Amino acid sequence: MAEEAAGWGGREAGEIFSACRLLFSDPAYMGRIQDMIRREQVSAEYGVFSVSEALFQEFCSMEEEYLRARSADIRDAELRLLRLLGDEAEGEVSPGPCILFAEELLPGDLLKLSPKDLLAVVTRQGSSLSHAAILARTMGIPAVTGIDLPQEAEGRLAAVEGDAGFVWLEPDQEKLSSLRKKQAESARETEELLALKDLPAVSKSGRRIRLYANIGGLSDLKEALSRGAEGVGLFRTEFLYLGRTAPPGEEEQFQIYRAAAEALRGKPLILRTFDIGADKQVSYLQQEREENPAMGYRGIRIGLDRPELLKPQLRAALRAGLYGNLSIMYPMITSIRELSGLRRLLREAEEELLQEGLPFRKGIRQGVMIETPAAAVTADLLIREADFFSIGTNDLTQYTYAADRQNHRLAGCGDPSREALLRLIRYTVKAAHKAGKEAAVCGELAADRSLTGFFLELGIDELSVSPGMLLPLRKGIREEA
Ligand code: PEP
Ligand code: MG
Fold first, then answer.
1. Which of 59-68, 69-78, 212-221 is modeled with the greatest confidence?
2. pLDDT for position 10
3. Which terminus in the chain has less CB density within 10 A, N or C?
4. What is the mean pLDDT of residues 233-243?
5. Looking at ligand 1, which residue's alpha carbon is closest to its atom 6?
6. Which SS3 state, helix, strand or coil, does residue 242 take?
Protein backbone atom coordinates (compact mmCIF):
# COMPACT_ATOMS: atom_id res chain seq x y z
CA MET A 1 0.00 0.00 0.00
CA ALA A 2 2.84 2.36 0.86
CA GLU A 3 4.41 1.67 -2.52
CA GLU A 4 1.17 2.27 -4.37
CA ALA A 5 0.60 5.51 -2.47
CA ALA A 6 4.15 6.68 -3.18
CA GLY A 7 3.49 5.91 -6.85
CA TRP A 8 0.63 8.38 -7.11
CA GLY A 9 1.42 10.88 -4.38
CA GLY A 10 5.19 10.78 -3.99
CA ARG A 11 7.28 10.09 -0.89
CA GLU A 12 4.99 12.04 1.41
CA ALA A 13 1.96 9.98 0.48
CA GLY A 14 3.98 6.78 1.00
CA GLU A 15 4.91 7.94 4.48
CA ILE A 16 1.32 8.10 5.68
CA PHE A 17 1.64 4.37 6.20
CA SER A 18 4.71 4.60 8.40
CA ALA A 19 2.71 4.57 11.64
CA CYS A 20 0.90 1.45 10.46
CA ARG A 21 4.18 -0.18 9.53
CA LEU A 22 5.56 0.47 13.00
CA LEU A 23 2.49 -0.90 14.69
CA PHE A 24 2.47 -4.02 12.53
CA SER A 25 5.97 -4.90 13.68
CA ASP A 26 5.36 -3.98 17.33
CA PRO A 27 4.97 -7.02 19.61
CA ALA A 28 2.82 -4.90 21.94
CA TYR A 29 0.27 -4.78 19.13
CA MET A 30 0.73 -7.67 16.72
CA GLY A 31 2.07 -9.93 19.47
CA ARG A 32 -0.97 -9.33 21.63
CA ILE A 33 -3.31 -10.06 18.71
CA GLN A 34 -1.49 -13.29 17.86
CA ASP A 35 -1.50 -14.34 21.52
CA MET A 36 -5.20 -13.76 21.81
CA ILE A 37 -5.98 -15.76 18.67
CA ARG A 38 -3.84 -18.69 19.92
CA ARG A 39 -4.91 -18.69 23.53
CA GLU A 40 -8.57 -17.85 23.22
CA GLN A 41 -9.16 -19.47 19.83
CA VAL A 42 -10.94 -16.37 18.53
CA SER A 43 -11.11 -15.34 14.88
CA ALA A 44 -8.39 -13.08 13.50
CA GLU A 45 -10.91 -10.26 13.05
CA TYR A 46 -12.05 -10.51 16.64
CA GLY A 47 -8.44 -10.53 17.88
CA VAL A 48 -7.62 -7.40 15.87
CA PHE A 49 -10.79 -5.69 17.04
CA SER A 50 -10.38 -6.48 20.77
CA VAL A 51 -6.70 -5.64 21.08
CA SER A 52 -7.07 -2.46 19.02
CA GLU A 53 -10.01 -1.27 21.08
CA ALA A 54 -8.15 -1.86 24.36
CA LEU A 55 -5.05 -0.10 23.07
CA PHE A 56 -7.12 2.72 21.62
CA GLN A 57 -8.72 3.37 25.01
CA GLU A 58 -5.31 3.26 26.71
CA PHE A 59 -3.91 5.88 24.36
CA CYS A 60 -7.01 8.07 24.56
CA SER A 61 -6.60 8.38 28.30
CA MET A 62 -2.90 9.30 28.20
CA GLU A 63 -1.93 12.66 29.54
CA GLU A 64 0.53 13.71 26.93
CA GLU A 65 -1.24 15.16 23.91
CA TYR A 66 1.19 13.66 21.44
CA LEU A 67 0.48 10.16 22.73
CA ARG A 68 -3.26 10.78 22.83
CA ALA A 69 -3.15 11.73 19.16
CA ARG A 70 -1.51 8.35 18.36
CA SER A 71 -4.85 6.70 19.13
CA ALA A 72 -5.85 7.65 15.57
CA ASP A 73 -2.96 5.52 14.23
CA ILE A 74 -4.29 2.54 16.14
CA ARG A 75 -7.76 3.04 14.73
CA ASP A 76 -6.27 3.34 11.26
CA ALA A 77 -4.19 0.16 11.64
CA GLU A 78 -7.25 -1.67 12.95
CA LEU A 79 -9.42 -0.64 10.01
CA ARG A 80 -6.75 -1.59 7.50
CA LEU A 81 -6.23 -5.01 9.03
CA LEU A 82 -9.95 -5.66 9.23
CA ARG A 83 -10.40 -4.60 5.65
CA LEU A 84 -7.61 -6.90 4.46
CA LEU A 85 -8.98 -9.81 6.46
CA GLY A 86 -12.47 -9.08 5.12
CA ASP A 87 -11.25 -8.87 1.53
CA GLU A 88 -9.59 -12.24 1.89
CA ALA A 89 -12.71 -13.82 3.30
CA GLU A 90 -14.75 -12.44 0.40
CA GLY A 91 -12.49 -14.17 -2.09
CA GLU A 92 -13.41 -17.53 -0.60
CA VAL A 93 -17.15 -17.09 -0.50
CA SER A 94 -19.26 -17.51 -3.59
CA PRO A 95 -22.82 -17.58 -2.34
CA GLY A 96 -24.54 -17.80 -5.73
CA PRO A 97 -27.83 -16.00 -6.38
CA CYS A 98 -29.06 -14.67 -3.02
CA ILE A 99 -30.71 -11.85 -1.12
CA LEU A 100 -28.19 -9.94 0.95
CA PHE A 101 -29.21 -8.96 4.48
CA ALA A 102 -26.89 -6.44 6.15
CA GLU A 103 -26.96 -4.09 9.08
CA GLU A 104 -25.46 -1.37 6.90
CA LEU A 105 -24.10 -1.35 3.37
CA LEU A 106 -21.68 1.11 1.82
CA PRO A 107 -21.38 1.61 -1.93
CA GLY A 108 -17.83 0.17 -1.84
CA ASP A 109 -19.18 -3.08 -0.37
CA LEU A 110 -21.80 -3.35 -3.07
CA LEU A 111 -19.28 -2.77 -5.83
CA LYS A 112 -17.30 -5.79 -4.67
CA LEU A 113 -20.25 -8.14 -5.17
CA SER A 114 -21.28 -9.59 -8.47
CA PRO A 115 -24.56 -7.96 -9.56
CA LYS A 116 -25.76 -11.15 -11.24
CA ASP A 117 -25.69 -12.99 -7.89
CA LEU A 118 -27.57 -10.26 -6.03
CA LEU A 119 -31.32 -10.75 -6.25
CA ALA A 120 -32.04 -8.00 -3.71
CA VAL A 121 -30.50 -6.08 -0.84
CA VAL A 122 -32.10 -5.56 2.57
CA THR A 123 -30.52 -3.35 5.25
CA ARG A 124 -31.50 -2.06 8.64
CA GLN A 125 -29.62 1.21 8.36
CA GLY A 126 -29.70 3.72 5.54
CA SER A 127 -32.52 5.07 3.43
CA SER A 128 -33.60 5.01 -0.19
CA LEU A 129 -31.29 8.02 -0.70
CA SER A 130 -28.18 6.28 0.71
CA HIS A 131 -25.64 5.79 -2.02
CA ALA A 132 -25.69 2.01 -1.66
CA ALA A 133 -29.45 2.10 -2.35
CA ILE A 134 -28.99 4.51 -5.27
CA LEU A 135 -26.24 2.31 -6.68
CA ALA A 136 -28.41 -0.79 -6.32
CA ARG A 137 -31.23 1.02 -8.13
CA THR A 138 -28.82 2.05 -10.91
CA MET A 139 -27.82 -1.61 -11.28
CA GLY A 140 -31.48 -2.69 -11.30
CA ILE A 141 -31.25 -4.55 -7.97
CA PRO A 142 -34.25 -4.14 -5.62
CA ALA A 143 -33.17 -2.60 -2.31
CA VAL A 144 -35.18 -2.18 0.88
CA THR A 145 -33.88 -0.22 3.87
CA GLY A 146 -35.03 0.34 7.43
CA ILE A 147 -35.94 -3.30 8.04
CA ASP A 148 -35.33 -4.99 11.38
CA LEU A 149 -33.25 -7.90 10.27
CA PRO A 150 -34.56 -11.32 11.18
CA GLN A 151 -32.27 -13.47 13.31
CA GLU A 152 -30.88 -16.40 11.43
CA ALA A 153 -32.14 -15.55 7.99
CA GLU A 154 -29.22 -17.40 6.48
CA GLY A 155 -30.22 -20.17 4.13
CA ARG A 156 -33.96 -19.58 4.45
CA LEU A 157 -36.29 -18.61 1.65
CA ALA A 158 -37.12 -14.91 1.48
CA ALA A 159 -38.93 -12.60 -0.93
CA VAL A 160 -38.43 -8.89 -1.48
CA GLU A 161 -40.90 -6.50 -3.08
CA GLY A 162 -38.65 -3.55 -3.80
CA ASP A 163 -41.28 -1.05 -4.99
CA ALA A 164 -43.43 -1.51 -1.91
CA GLY A 165 -40.51 -1.90 0.51
CA PHE A 166 -41.68 -5.29 1.84
CA VAL A 167 -39.62 -8.31 2.83
CA TRP A 168 -41.08 -11.76 3.61
CA LEU A 169 -39.23 -14.52 5.36
CA GLU A 170 -40.45 -17.97 4.38
CA PRO A 171 -43.54 -16.74 2.52
CA ASP A 172 -46.28 -19.37 2.08
CA GLN A 173 -47.25 -20.74 -1.33
CA GLU A 174 -50.11 -18.30 -1.73
CA LYS A 175 -47.88 -15.27 -1.08
CA LEU A 176 -45.20 -16.65 -3.35
CA SER A 177 -47.54 -17.14 -6.27
CA SER A 178 -49.06 -13.68 -5.87
CA LEU A 179 -45.55 -12.16 -5.81
CA ARG A 180 -44.53 -14.18 -8.87
CA LYS A 181 -47.60 -12.89 -10.65
CA LYS A 182 -46.67 -9.29 -9.83
CA GLN A 183 -43.13 -9.97 -11.04
CA ALA A 184 -44.41 -11.28 -14.36
CA GLU A 185 -46.77 -8.31 -14.72
CA SER A 186 -43.98 -5.86 -14.08
CA ALA A 187 -41.75 -7.58 -16.67
CA ARG A 188 -44.62 -7.36 -19.17
CA GLU A 189 -45.11 -3.66 -18.43
CA THR A 190 -41.42 -2.97 -19.01
CA GLU A 191 -41.65 -4.84 -22.29
CA GLU A 192 -44.60 -2.69 -23.36
CA LEU A 193 -42.90 0.51 -22.28
CA LEU A 194 -39.96 -0.29 -24.54
CA ALA A 195 -42.16 0.77 -27.45
CA LEU A 196 -41.86 4.33 -26.13
CA LYS A 197 -38.10 4.40 -25.82
CA ASP A 198 -37.38 6.47 -28.93
CA LEU A 199 -40.41 8.76 -28.69
CA PRO A 200 -39.79 12.27 -27.34
CA ALA A 201 -40.68 12.99 -23.70
CA VAL A 202 -43.22 15.66 -24.56
CA SER A 203 -46.40 16.57 -22.68
CA LYS A 204 -49.82 16.86 -24.36
CA SER A 205 -49.45 20.63 -24.53
CA GLY A 206 -46.10 20.29 -26.26
CA ARG A 207 -43.59 20.90 -23.45
CA ARG A 208 -40.49 18.81 -23.98
CA ILE A 209 -37.91 17.55 -21.49
CA ARG A 210 -34.78 15.62 -22.38
CA LEU A 211 -34.44 12.37 -20.44
CA TYR A 212 -30.93 11.38 -19.40
CA ALA A 213 -29.59 8.57 -17.22
CA ASN A 214 -27.56 8.57 -14.02
CA ILE A 215 -24.76 6.02 -14.14
CA GLY A 216 -22.11 4.79 -11.73
CA GLY A 217 -19.83 3.18 -14.29
CA LEU A 218 -19.51 1.87 -17.83
CA SER A 219 -21.52 -1.22 -16.99
CA ASP A 220 -24.71 0.84 -16.50
CA LEU A 221 -24.48 2.48 -19.89
CA LYS A 222 -25.81 -0.37 -21.99
CA GLU A 223 -28.95 -0.64 -19.90
CA ALA A 224 -29.43 3.14 -20.02
CA LEU A 225 -29.14 3.27 -23.81
CA SER A 226 -31.42 0.28 -24.30
CA ARG A 227 -34.09 2.18 -22.36
CA GLY A 228 -33.82 5.26 -24.52
CA ALA A 229 -31.45 7.52 -22.52
CA GLU A 230 -30.83 10.69 -24.55
CA GLY A 231 -27.56 11.19 -22.71
CA VAL A 232 -25.92 10.77 -19.31
CA GLY A 233 -26.83 13.60 -16.96
CA LEU A 234 -24.78 12.35 -14.04
CA PHE A 235 -21.81 10.00 -14.08
CA ARG A 236 -21.02 9.46 -10.38
CA THR A 237 -17.29 9.10 -11.03
CA GLU A 238 -16.42 8.61 -7.35
CA PHE A 239 -17.58 5.01 -7.66
CA LEU A 240 -14.38 4.46 -9.65
CA TYR A 241 -12.44 5.49 -6.54
CA LEU A 242 -14.10 3.15 -4.05
CA GLY A 243 -12.99 -0.28 -2.86
CA ARG A 244 -9.34 0.10 -3.83
CA THR A 245 -6.07 1.02 -2.16
CA ALA A 246 -5.12 3.99 -4.37
CA PRO A 247 -7.10 6.32 -6.62
CA PRO A 248 -7.46 5.45 -10.31
CA GLY A 249 -4.75 7.20 -12.29
CA GLU A 250 -5.24 9.65 -15.16
CA GLU A 251 -4.74 7.01 -17.84
CA GLU A 252 -7.22 4.56 -16.33
CA GLN A 253 -9.82 7.31 -16.01
CA PHE A 254 -9.16 8.56 -19.53
CA GLN A 255 -9.85 5.07 -20.94
CA ILE A 256 -13.13 4.81 -19.02
CA TYR A 257 -14.41 8.29 -19.92
CA ARG A 258 -13.37 7.81 -23.53
CA ALA A 259 -15.20 4.48 -23.72
CA ALA A 260 -18.33 6.08 -22.21
CA ALA A 261 -18.18 9.05 -24.60
CA GLU A 262 -17.75 6.73 -27.58
CA ALA A 263 -20.57 4.42 -26.52
CA LEU A 264 -22.86 7.45 -26.36
CA ARG A 265 -22.07 8.35 -30.00
CA GLY A 266 -22.39 12.10 -29.65
CA LYS A 267 -25.10 12.09 -26.99
CA PRO A 268 -24.15 14.25 -24.01
CA LEU A 269 -22.07 12.79 -21.16
CA ILE A 270 -21.85 14.82 -17.96
CA LEU A 271 -19.02 13.73 -15.67
CA ARG A 272 -19.33 14.80 -12.12
CA THR A 273 -15.93 15.23 -10.48
CA PHE A 274 -15.46 12.77 -7.63
CA ASP A 275 -17.81 13.35 -4.71
CA ILE A 276 -15.85 11.26 -2.23
CA GLY A 277 -16.77 11.57 1.45
CA ALA A 278 -19.93 11.13 3.56
CA ASP A 279 -21.08 7.56 2.83
CA LYS A 280 -18.45 7.18 0.10
CA GLN A 281 -15.23 6.95 2.09
CA VAL A 282 -11.92 5.69 0.70
CA SER A 283 -9.19 4.37 2.97
CA TYR A 284 -6.25 5.88 1.07
CA LEU A 285 -7.25 9.47 1.80
CA GLN A 286 -6.53 8.97 5.49
CA GLN A 287 -9.64 10.89 6.37
CA GLU A 288 -10.24 11.64 10.01
CA ARG A 289 -13.37 10.36 11.62
CA GLU A 290 -15.98 13.14 11.37
CA GLU A 291 -18.96 13.87 13.56
CA ASN A 292 -21.03 14.98 10.56
CA PRO A 293 -19.47 13.52 7.42
CA ALA A 294 -22.31 14.71 5.17
CA MET A 295 -21.36 18.24 6.15
CA GLY A 296 -17.68 17.41 6.24
CA TYR A 297 -14.65 17.01 4.06
CA ARG A 298 -16.18 15.82 0.79
CA GLY A 299 -16.45 16.43 -2.94
CA ILE A 300 -14.79 19.54 -4.24
CA ARG A 301 -13.68 20.44 -0.73
CA ILE A 302 -11.22 17.56 -1.00
CA GLY A 303 -10.48 18.38 -4.64
CA LEU A 304 -9.59 22.01 -3.93
CA ASP A 305 -7.59 21.09 -0.87
CA ARG A 306 -5.71 18.30 -2.65
CA PRO A 307 -5.35 19.27 -6.31
CA GLU A 308 -2.96 16.34 -6.81
CA LEU A 309 -6.10 14.16 -6.57
CA LEU A 310 -8.48 16.23 -8.67
CA LYS A 311 -6.13 17.31 -11.42
CA PRO A 312 -5.58 13.84 -12.91
CA GLN A 313 -9.36 13.50 -13.14
CA LEU A 314 -9.72 16.85 -14.89
CA ARG A 315 -6.90 15.98 -17.29
CA ALA A 316 -8.52 12.61 -18.05
CA ALA A 317 -11.88 14.31 -18.72
CA LEU A 318 -10.31 16.98 -20.95
CA ARG A 319 -8.53 14.32 -23.00
CA ALA A 320 -11.64 12.12 -23.25
CA GLY A 321 -13.58 15.20 -24.37
CA LEU A 322 -12.17 14.68 -27.86
CA TYR A 323 -14.15 11.46 -28.25
CA GLY A 324 -17.67 12.70 -27.69
CA ASN A 325 -19.97 15.32 -26.23
CA LEU A 326 -18.51 15.57 -22.73
CA SER A 327 -19.05 18.14 -19.97
CA ILE A 328 -17.73 18.39 -16.44
CA MET A 329 -19.79 19.28 -13.41
CA TYR A 330 -18.84 20.11 -9.85
CA PRO A 331 -20.68 18.77 -6.78
CA MET A 332 -21.21 20.35 -3.37
CA ILE A 333 -20.62 23.94 -4.47
CA THR A 334 -21.44 26.54 -1.83
CA SER A 335 -19.75 29.68 -3.17
CA ILE A 336 -18.40 31.53 -6.18
CA ARG A 337 -14.96 31.28 -4.65
CA GLU A 338 -14.98 27.50 -4.89
CA LEU A 339 -16.21 27.60 -8.46
CA SER A 340 -13.48 30.07 -9.45
CA GLY A 341 -10.90 27.83 -7.76
CA LEU A 342 -12.11 24.84 -9.76
CA ARG A 343 -12.12 26.74 -13.02
CA ARG A 344 -8.56 27.83 -12.26
CA LEU A 345 -7.56 24.21 -11.66
CA LEU A 346 -9.09 23.22 -14.99
CA ARG A 347 -7.14 25.97 -16.74
CA GLU A 348 -3.95 24.69 -15.14
CA ALA A 349 -4.77 21.17 -16.32
CA GLU A 350 -5.30 22.53 -19.86
CA GLU A 351 -1.98 24.38 -19.79
CA GLU A 352 -0.15 21.27 -18.62
CA LEU A 353 -1.66 19.17 -21.40
CA LEU A 354 -0.78 21.83 -23.92
CA GLN A 355 2.82 21.88 -22.78
CA GLU A 356 3.03 18.11 -22.80
CA GLY A 357 1.61 18.03 -26.32
CA LEU A 358 -1.36 15.84 -25.30
CA PRO A 359 -4.53 16.52 -27.32
CA PHE A 360 -7.64 17.59 -25.39
CA ARG A 361 -11.02 19.24 -25.81
CA LYS A 362 -10.80 23.04 -25.59
CA GLY A 363 -13.59 25.08 -24.03
CA ILE A 364 -15.18 22.10 -22.29
CA ARG A 365 -18.52 22.95 -20.64
CA GLN A 366 -18.45 23.27 -16.87
CA GLY A 367 -21.66 22.88 -14.89
CA VAL A 368 -22.49 23.38 -11.25
CA MET A 369 -24.55 21.02 -9.14
CA ILE A 370 -27.03 22.88 -7.04
CA GLU A 371 -27.26 20.76 -3.93
CA THR A 372 -26.76 23.21 -1.09
CA PRO A 373 -29.15 26.00 -0.14
CA ALA A 374 -26.14 28.36 -0.36
CA ALA A 375 -25.71 27.49 -4.04
CA ALA A 376 -29.44 27.74 -4.76
CA VAL A 377 -29.86 31.22 -3.28
CA THR A 378 -26.77 32.48 -5.11
CA ALA A 379 -27.72 30.78 -8.37
CA ASP A 380 -27.89 34.17 -10.11
CA LEU A 381 -24.22 34.77 -9.23
CA LEU A 382 -22.98 31.23 -9.86
CA ILE A 383 -24.51 31.08 -13.32
CA ARG A 384 -22.13 33.81 -14.46
CA GLU A 385 -19.28 31.32 -14.17
CA ALA A 386 -21.21 28.16 -15.02
CA ASP A 387 -22.38 26.79 -18.36
CA PHE A 388 -25.35 24.93 -16.83
CA PHE A 389 -26.92 23.83 -13.58
CA SER A 390 -27.92 20.39 -12.44
CA ILE A 391 -29.99 20.25 -9.29
CA GLY A 392 -29.08 17.44 -6.89
CA THR A 393 -32.29 17.12 -4.93
CA ASN A 394 -30.95 14.36 -2.68
CA ASP A 395 -28.47 16.62 -0.99
CA LEU A 396 -30.47 19.80 -1.51
CA THR A 397 -33.34 18.21 0.43
CA GLN A 398 -31.13 17.05 3.28
CA TYR A 399 -29.43 20.43 3.71
CA THR A 400 -32.62 22.45 3.30
CA TYR A 401 -34.58 20.51 5.89
CA ALA A 402 -31.60 19.57 8.10
CA ALA A 403 -32.68 15.95 7.63
CA ASP A 404 -29.95 13.34 7.17
CA ARG A 405 -30.62 11.53 3.88
CA GLN A 406 -29.27 8.27 5.36
CA ASN A 407 -31.85 8.23 8.10
CA HIS A 408 -34.91 6.30 6.97
CA ARG A 409 -36.97 7.68 9.85
CA LEU A 410 -36.73 11.13 8.31
CA ALA A 411 -37.93 10.17 4.84
CA GLY A 412 -40.62 12.64 3.83
CA CYS A 413 -40.57 14.24 7.27
CA GLY A 414 -41.48 17.81 8.00
CA ASP A 415 -42.98 19.25 4.89
CA PRO A 416 -44.89 16.91 2.55
CA SER A 417 -45.55 19.78 0.12
CA ARG A 418 -41.78 20.46 -0.08
CA GLU A 419 -42.47 24.17 -0.38
CA ALA A 420 -38.98 25.27 0.73
CA LEU A 421 -37.29 22.88 -1.69
CA LEU A 422 -39.54 23.82 -4.60
CA ARG A 423 -38.81 27.51 -4.03
CA LEU A 424 -35.08 26.84 -4.22
CA ILE A 425 -35.54 24.79 -7.39
CA ARG A 426 -37.72 27.49 -8.95
CA TYR A 427 -35.21 30.21 -8.11
CA THR A 428 -32.33 28.15 -9.53
CA VAL A 429 -34.07 27.37 -12.81
CA LYS A 430 -35.19 30.97 -13.30
CA ALA A 431 -31.63 32.23 -12.67
CA ALA A 432 -30.26 29.84 -15.30
CA HIS A 433 -32.91 30.71 -17.88
CA LYS A 434 -32.51 34.42 -17.31
CA ALA A 435 -28.85 34.02 -18.19
CA GLY A 436 -29.82 32.01 -21.31
CA LYS A 437 -28.49 28.75 -19.85
CA GLU A 438 -30.01 25.38 -19.02
CA ALA A 439 -31.05 23.73 -15.79
CA ALA A 440 -31.53 20.02 -15.09
CA VAL A 441 -32.55 17.88 -12.13
CA CYS A 442 -30.50 14.76 -11.41
CA GLY A 443 -31.51 13.82 -7.85
CA GLU A 444 -33.96 10.99 -7.19
CA LEU A 445 -36.90 13.42 -7.21
CA ALA A 446 -36.38 13.83 -10.96
CA ALA A 447 -38.22 10.52 -11.32
CA ASP A 448 -40.97 11.40 -8.82
CA ARG A 449 -44.18 11.48 -10.82
CA SER A 450 -45.87 13.84 -8.37
CA LEU A 451 -43.37 16.52 -9.45
CA THR A 452 -43.46 15.96 -13.21
CA GLY A 453 -46.13 18.63 -13.73
CA PHE A 454 -44.09 21.11 -11.68
CA PHE A 455 -40.93 20.41 -13.70
CA LEU A 456 -42.81 20.80 -16.99
CA GLU A 457 -44.35 24.07 -15.93
CA LEU A 458 -41.03 25.38 -14.77
CA GLY A 459 -39.47 24.54 -18.13
CA ILE A 460 -36.77 22.20 -16.74
CA ASP A 461 -34.56 21.34 -19.70
CA GLU A 462 -33.52 17.86 -18.64
CA LEU A 463 -34.29 15.19 -16.06
CA SER A 464 -31.63 12.61 -15.27
CA VAL A 465 -32.75 9.41 -13.55
CA SER A 466 -31.61 5.86 -12.83
CA PRO A 467 -31.86 3.67 -15.96
CA GLY A 468 -34.83 1.71 -14.58
CA MET A 469 -36.90 4.90 -14.27
CA LEU A 470 -36.38 6.14 -17.85
CA LEU A 471 -39.31 4.35 -19.45
CA PRO A 472 -41.96 4.97 -16.75
CA LEU A 473 -40.97 8.64 -16.66
CA ARG A 474 -41.15 8.99 -20.44
CA LYS A 475 -44.64 7.54 -20.31
CA GLY A 476 -45.55 9.87 -17.40
CA ILE A 477 -44.41 13.00 -19.22
CA ARG A 478 -46.31 12.02 -22.34
CA GLU A 479 -49.46 11.67 -20.26
CA GLU A 480 -49.14 15.11 -18.60
CA ALA A 481 -51.34 17.93 -19.81
C1 PEP B 1 -27.91 14.64 -5.29
O2 PEP B 1 -27.38 14.99 -4.24
O3 PEP B 1 -29.12 14.82 -5.54
C4 PEP B 1 -27.10 13.95 -6.32
C5 PEP B 1 -27.60 13.72 -7.52
O6 PEP B 1 -25.86 13.51 -5.97
P7 PEP B 1 -25.65 12.26 -5.00
O8 PEP B 1 -26.95 11.54 -4.82
O9 PEP B 1 -24.62 11.37 -5.62
O10 PEP B 1 -25.16 12.89 -3.74
MG1 MG C 1 -25.25 14.98 -4.05
1. 212-221
2. 65
3. C
4. 94
5. 392
6. coil
- CB-based contact 216:135 (threshold 8 Å): yes
Please give the Cα distance from 46 to 30 (Å, whole number).
13
Ligand 1 midpoint to CA 406 (Å): 12
Query: What local confidence, expressed as pLDDT, does residue 87 receive?
Result: 53
The full set of domains in the chain, from first to last, is 2-85 (1.10.274.10), 98-185 (3.50.30.10), 195-479 (3.20.20.60)
Confidence band for 91, pLDDT divided at 50, 70 and 90:
very low
Does residue 442 carry a catalytic annotation? Answer: yes
Which of 369, 428, 445 for mutating ligand 1's site (highest number of atoms within 8 Å of CB)? 369
CA distances for 279 relative to 204, 232, 293, 295, 422, angstroms: 41, 23, 8, 11, 26
Identity of residue 231: G
- Is residue 98 annotated as part of the catalytic site, yes or no? no
| Length of the chain measured in residues | 481
| pLDDT class of 12 with cuts at 50, 70, 90 | low
Three-state DSSP class for residue 441: strand
Q: Ligand 1, atom 3: nearest CA belongs to which residue? A: 392
The residue type of 445 is: L
Query: Average pLDDT in the 471-478 region?
Result: 97
Residue 436 region by backbone torsions, left for phi larger than 0, else alpha for psi between -120 and 50, else beta = left
- Mean pLDDT is lowest, of 154-163, 316-325, 347-356, 365-374, for 154-163
Q: How far is the CA of 400 from the centre of ligand 1 (A)?
A: 14
Ligand 1 is surrounded, with C-beta below 6 A, by: 134, 234, 236, 275, 371, 392-395, 442-443
- Rounded-to-integer distance, Cα 438 and Cα 58, Å: 56
- Helices and strands per DSSP (H, E), number in the chain: 20, 13
pLDDT value of position 93: 47
- Dist. CA 460–CA 440, nearest whole Å: 6
Mean pLDDT computed over every residue of the chain = 90
Take atom 4 of ligand 1 and give the residue whose Cα is closest. Answer: 392
Ligand found nearest the CA of 128: 1
Ligand 1 atom with the smallest distance to the CA of 238 is 9
Nearest-CA residue for atom 9 of ligand 1? 236
| The pLDDT of residue 95 is above 70 | no
* Index of the ligand 1 atom closest to the CA of residue 444: 3
Looking at residue 138, what is its pLDDT? Answer: 85
